[in-house]
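haha ok so turns out i had the wrong file open the whole time. this is the CORRECT one, sorry everyone. sequence first:
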Amino acid sequence: MNKLRVLLVESELNDARFIQEALAEIEETTHGGTWLHCDVTHLERADDAIVVIEAEPPDLVLFNPNLEDSCGLATFSALRDAGPNLPLIAMLDAGEEGLGRRMLRQGAQDFLLKIEIDCRPLARALLNAVERQRFCRGTQSASTIDLETGFYTRDGFRELANRDLRLATGCNRSLTLVLAELDNLWDVDAACGREATHDLVVEAANVIRDGAGDTAVLGRAALGRFGIADCQRTPEQTILSLQHRVQAGHHAFAFVFGYSRAIGGSPTIDDLIDEAETVLYENKQAFPNLS
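then structure:
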């Protein structure tokens, strides 16, 4: 049986119930000899969906672009930037086909008209979207560099940081991992648009590049989140260096930080990332609206 973790992002509760019923019916019908089971998480807001996507990406996202807190192409762009490798399927009202085609040109896997949704075409769309996304990931797997920032992609960063972790462990040295996330990035996006958001990301990446030091491995984990792995500095040294450059350069942004440190034992790079993410979320709660 194929199991898909589906994130359903829909503000209209009646439509959400209908989609959930259609997804539940999928398991009752075979599709090409394969049973399909969907574990569905329903959210009503784009902001909440972005948090889930960045913390624990699902297999697929079904979304209505017109939500309580986001509208149209901006919704798709925000979801795509939060999960660049996720298959995204838009659910549109009649007459929105033009919007659907624009989303396809910008990376969406498919769009469906709500009036045409039934369990069989929906199941086919889900499976096709997942397979197309797997193919795209396969063709892109040779590239580990994020073209916008020049940092390693999330997968490339994990690979290089894990290599450094093994080397540090073998030499009885420590490795530190720092996550730096741009504070209030979505407020910038809402007020100034996506182009200004990406300009800010590049500016922040340059600050990190200058402040992290020559020995650090730098990665981009999400739209405005960066990873720094280093065997030479403590987390405090890295964070102070970045804060100093933000202040000295009079940059109109602030970072929220999370960090972890491997000292002895046998942690994996995923263990360190999980620990750093926990600290990051605690700091976001404790110090809201830094910028």
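The longest strand covers residues 2-9.
again sry for the mixup
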